[in-house]
Hints:
Strand content: 35-45%
Radius of gyration: 18 Å
Largest sheet: 6 strands, antiparallel
Mean pLDDT: 89
Number of domains: 1
Helix content: 25-40%
Order of helices and strands: EHHHEEEEHE
Number of helices: 4
Structural class: alpha+beta
Strand order of the largest sheet: 1-6-5-4-3-2
Low-confidence stretches: none
Number of strands: 6
Shape: globular
Amino acid sequence: xxxxxxxxxxxxxxxxxxxxxxxxxxxxxxxxxxxxxxxxxxxxxxxxxxxxxxxxxxxxxxxxxxxxxxxxxxxxxxxxxxxxxxxxxxxxxxxxxxxxxxxxxxxxxxxxxxxxxxxxx
Length: 121
């Protein structure tokens, strides 16, 4: 029996909630943040960049806060309590930015599988 190769496409949904969108816009889009990192055009661009960065940074056990956190470079630390799938921006960053930001991490789903041409090894 010959081995076969497959490509699998995944889909993931994240829900991002900005408690005070104008404060987020003032901090990340119009403020000094862009001088240290990069320019964001609007809130859609911010959410796209945040969610991508969030996905790239693994969670770790946060003994101080009692649960899991993700340190998302440039966007702050997001913490989730045990048993929850919602990450919330930690208080120190909320004070600096002027808004709560939460990210709900939904399930990852394989949506498409394709056998590669010439997939036999």
